[in-house]
């Protein structure tokens, strides 16, 4: 009997691994925590912004950028802002158009006009000048150019009298803009 117990308790060589078992059942989901506090109201923004982005351009004194799918009403009721990144600057350096150029070696001016009515398209022309007003003809490369067309949230009639506020009445202007009159 002692011999039988001895043979039964001996281990032999390890056999190959068996097949993987079936996936176990999903555990219960924990209890959801309580709702957090509502955050403060953010600044009112303008969702009506169109951004045009352009790649590298090398030119001497002028360059043009096409704004496609731009209705005349849209551009007439918007502010148009333009910025460029010169190749000799860090990729995060942006210069405003119009304004002084990279290293103040030139200035930029811009204008836009409708080049097609069907479909409606506009062209923004950018010109470079020396500080004395003469045309700057040195070669320059802009690696990126951006044009933002920002639609007005409100369009008011300008002039001496506004349909919203009498611009000749100091008290009315102060009230409109939320200032106290003194």
Labels describing this entry:
single chain; 182 residues; mainly beta; 2 domains; 5-stranded antiparallel beta sheet; 4-stranded antiparallel beta sheet; 9 strands; 34% strand; extended
Number of helices: 3
Percent of residues in helices:
10-25%
Number of domains: 2
- Give the radius of gyration: 35 Å
Bulk shape: extended
The end-to-end span amounts to 115 Å
Structural commentary:
11% of the residues lie in helices and 34% in strands. It is extended. The strands form two sheets. Strands 1, 2, 4, 5 and 9 form a five-stranded antiparallel β-sheet that branches. Strands 3-8-7-6 form a four-stranded antiparallel β-sheet, with no helix packed on it. The protein folds into two domains: 103 residues; 28 residues, no CATH class. It has 182 residues and is mostly beta strands.
List the helices and strands and how they pair.
Elements: H1 2-8, E1 49-54, E2 57-59, E3 62-67, H2 72-76, E4 78-86, E5 95-97, E6 99-100, E7 107-117, E8 120-129, E9 140-151, H3 170-177
Antiparallel strand pairs: 1-9, 2-9, 3-8, 4-5, 4-9, 6-7, 7-8
């Amino acid at each position: 009997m002692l011999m039988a117990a001895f043979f039964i308790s001996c281990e032999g060589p390890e056999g190959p691994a068996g097949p993987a078992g079936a996936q176990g059942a999903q555990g219960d989901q924990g209890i959801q925590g309580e709702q957090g506090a509502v955050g403060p109201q953010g600044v009112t923004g303008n969702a009506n912004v169109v951004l045009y982005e352009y790649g590298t351009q090398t030119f001497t004194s002028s360059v043009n950028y096409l704004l496609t799918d731009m209705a005349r009403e849209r551009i007439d009721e918007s502010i148009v802002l333009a910025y460029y990144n010169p190749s000799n600057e860090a990729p995060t350096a942006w210069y405003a158009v119009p304004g002084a150029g990279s290293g103040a070696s030139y200035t930029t001016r811009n204008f836009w006009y409708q080049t097609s009515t069907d479909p409606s398209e506009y062209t923004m022309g950018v010109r470079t000048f020396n500080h004395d007003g003469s045309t700057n003809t040195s070669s320059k490369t802009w690696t990126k150019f951006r044009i933002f067309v920002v639609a007005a949230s409100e369009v008011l009639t300008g002039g001496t009298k506004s349909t919203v506020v009498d611009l000749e009445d100091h008290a009315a202007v102060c009230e409109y803009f939320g200032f106290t009159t003194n």
